[in-house]
Amino acid sequence: MFHPLFIIFFAAITIATSAAPVNFPTVEESKTELKDAGMTQASIDQLSAFTQRFATGYPVVQSNKEASDKFIADYSADVQNFVKSMNEKDQTLYHNYLVKYGLA
């Protein structure tokens, strides 16, 4: 259902925290937008946790190709599994959010 680029969402949100490009929301704005759209708090919290995981984990491994490849593969699998476990409404809201920002 989702384009594989949805993983980039987390990296983009992480980068947006320090230098938000025009028309791209901050982490807090993203949380508010998803909540206002009707996403469950549990899904918002887990997506936020993934964002934090990427923000803290990737910089540690980015200089090592093998380690960064493993991090991205593990991270991507975990995110994909989580998204698949979300209820149908949250999945739809998340997909629409990604489409809105050109990430799906």
Automatic annotation (TrEMBL):
This is DUF148 domain-containing protein. Keywords: Signal. It comes from Caenorhabditis elegans. Pfam families: DUF4473 (PF14747). Residues 1-19 form the signal peptide. The keyword Signal applies. It comes from the Eukaryota. The keyword Signal applies.
